[in-house]
Amino acid sequence: MTLPKGLFNHICEELEQNDVDFTVHEDYSGRGMYGDICVGFSSENVMAVVFRLGMVIAELTNNDNPNEDWTDWLEDNKYSLCDLFTRGITDSLGLKTIVYFKGLQVENSQEDDSGGEEDDE
After folding, report:
1. Is residue 62 included in any domain, yes or no?
2. Helix, strand, or coil (residue 72)
3. Model pTM?
4. How far is Cα 115 from Cα 9, in angstroms, rounded to an integer?
5. Which of 10, 22, 58, 70 places its Cα 20 to 30 Å from the Cα of 77?
6. Model confidence pLDDT, tens digit, residues 52-73
7. Residues of the domain holding 52
8. pLDDT recorded at residue 121
């Protein structure tokens, strides 16, 4: 599943507004992925990220977002998106933990960066 960049940025902005300390990884390749990449979020408190991420997704899928360019995409994919976010996998990064979502990518993720701190850990 490929998220529209605007929707992904909105999700990251919502996480930032709630004082969740995280780093975005748009090109993470976890165990058993054989070079495939996906979206991940790392933090010293990854459970706070997962909890808030669930709340953001629930808010988005239960509310109208009439002026956003990704509204139609979200309406068409909300059940798949919710299901995908329940399948997070965690790995240790030393002092931090990453939660990543196999099969989740961001549209044009190499063109511009936003949301959280970008880092290649």
Report:
1. yes
2. helix
3. 0.81
4. 6
5. 22
6. 998 888 888 887 776 678 888 8
7. 2-108
8. 46
